[in-house]
Amino acid sequence: MKFLLTATALIVCTIIFAQPTLLIKNATIVDVEKGKLIPNQQVLISNGFISSISPAKKQIKADSVIDGKGMYLIPGLWDFHTHIWNDATTFPLLIANGITGVRGMFEDVKNVKKWRENISAGKYAGPSIFSAGPIVDGPKPVWPGSVAIANAEQGKKAVDSLKNKLKVDFIKVYSLLGREGYFAIAEACKQQNIPFAGHVPNVLTVLEAANAGQSTQEHLYGFIEAASDSSEKWFAYQRGEIKDTNWKIRTVRKEFLFRTFNEKKLQTILQQIKKTNTWICPTLTVNRGIAYVNDTSLLNDPRMAYMGSLTRNMWDYRKDFRLQSLTSKDFEDNRYEFELKLKITGMIHKAGIPLLAGTDFPNPHCYIGFSLHDELEWMVKAGLSPAEALQTATVNPAKYLNRFATEGSVAVNKKANLVLLVANPLQNISNTKQIQMVFLNGKVFNAEQLQQMLESVKKLVTSVPQQPSSTGFHFDEE
Questions:
Q1: 1-17 in b/e burial notation, b at 16+ Cβ within 10 A?
Q2: H or E, element range at 55
């Protein structure tokens, strides 16, 4: 990946332009919403916002000028499914990869508050953070630190506490929630006007979750199950009604789903979901990472240099409690399932259901910052055009967050969260990696600075302690 940037992690980054006005001239603006290029433009930035856009021939005065000739200006990117363990090693990787916003799916709210305060105070550069705080799961949660819910009353209290005491931005629901608790949470969120998102619980269908108002569904959980010609048998197993001991074997259940997958049935379900306000975050990167986690050659990826020892150890499937018991047939099934999820992502897109780009870092082979570009590549492989893939990390997050008036595209009166590329991303989505500059609320990080950020993380990961934390990815359906 080619980078052009700087700044030492968690030390106030040297900003090359501190003047109140900044002009980017001769650049080609990428209109991500319409999927077209607008060549030879000049963009004036004042006080962190775009104050004007005009043809390059028009004379405009500014305190500082950047020549963007031959380059392409896109909005800052969002990673819409993340887990931040450490600001010092995470934020530089995000900024260096052009990521100016993240949706945190399981963080300590005290940490999030501290990070926001430090970013706002200018102590270091960091992304905009939209955060859930703790996961809300069933009575026996998958992860420590989750809120355990056994009934409707507990579900209502959890929403009240999370919103009004911890002041989270949204509620994240998880795999082991029961129906009673889940629907109580859905109703409480509606009453308290706070969105809820996350996993579709094992005992629910994707359509039930959509109709209940779940704003996003993660990892494509439930879509293969919903498409089964015999889906009722699957959900009977989830309710504990299947007595066949063979069904306790994971490969038996997987082969059942693959054998009974009905594409036409799924198309019908997708048309029904389209009528709701549901968004889908497929996290193809983590799905592939889990499917291929036993491929030890992946441990030679050069991006491993930016991952700490805790992360590298976690990516050894022999040490992961979710993966230790898997057989070669399990991994074979996982790889087939990944290919099926690629196809389903394309079907979701064709059905007109909006997609959001998220990676689920730091799960196996989800490289902080870098893998957002992997996710965009997988979106294209799933059938999206490069422009449509780019929308999943720019326009769509802004619209989902009701921030499109001020974010998500290169336009007047919008925040100057921008990325200057040396190659056209509409021609090849991989060109989002070709970063020349990043603009964060109007502050500029050049090529040298961005590279310095990356180098600083390489050093920090060997010295900065990292705390174990849940990754938020629930591997099995049980």
A1: bebbbbbbbbeebebbb
A2: strand 49-55
What does the H/E/C string look like for 270-338?
Answer: HHHHHCCCCEEECCHHHHHHHHCCCCHHHHHCHHHHHCCHHHHHHCCHHHCCCCCCCCHHHHHHHHHHH
How are beta strands 49-55 and 36-46 bridged, if at all? antiparallel
- Token pair, residue 332, equals 């074979």
Q: Output the DSSP codes for 164-229.
A: HTS--SSEEE-TT--HHHHHHHHHHHHHHT--EEEPPPTTS-HHHHHHHT--EEETTTTHHHHTBT
Beta carbons of 60 and 26 less than 8 angstroms apart? no
Q: Looking at residue 316, what is its pLDDT?
A: 84
Sequence-distant (≥ 6) Cβ neighbours of residue 159 within 8 angstroms: 171, 185, 188, 189, 192, 194, 196
- The answer to whether the CB of 277 falls within 8 A of the CB of 213 is yes
Helix/strand/coil for 150: coil
Q: Which residues pair with 36 in a beta bridge?
A: 31
- Report the distance separating Cα 153 and Cα 160, nearest Å: 11
pLDDT value of position 14: 40
pLDDT band at 470 (very low <50, low <70, confident <90, very high): very low
Asked if 199 contacts 138 with a C-beta cutoff of 8 angstroms, the reply is: no
Structural domains in the chain, sorted by start: 1-133+297-315+353-368+387-478 (2.30.40.10)
35-49, 210-224, 290-304, 403-417: least confidently modelled range:
290-304
Average pLDDT (137-163) is 97
Distance CA 372, CA 81 (A): 10
Q: How high is the pLDDT of residue 19? A: 52
Counting residues of the chain whose pLDDT is more than 90, the rounded percentage is 83
How far apart are the C-alpha atoms of 360 and 376, rounded to whole Å? 14
Q: Give the H/E segment covering residue 269.
A: helix 263-274
Higher pLDDT, 108 or 324: 108
Q: Please tell me the predicted confidence (pLDDT) of residue 31.
A: 98
Residue 415 pLDDT > 60, yes or no?
yes
Task: Provide mean pLDDT across the span 127-134.
Answer: 97
pLDDT at 468: 46
Q: Mean pLDDT over residues 211-223, rounded?
A: 98
The pair phi, psi for residue 49, each rounded to 5°, is -125, 160
* Rounded Cα gap, residues 198 and 280, in angstroms: 10
Q: Phi/psi at 344 (nearest 5 deg)? A: -65, -35
| Sheet of 279-281, strands arranged across | 147-148, 135-137, 171-173, 196-198, 216-218, 279-281
Q: What are the tokens at 164?
A: 């009004």
pTM score of the predicted model: 0.93
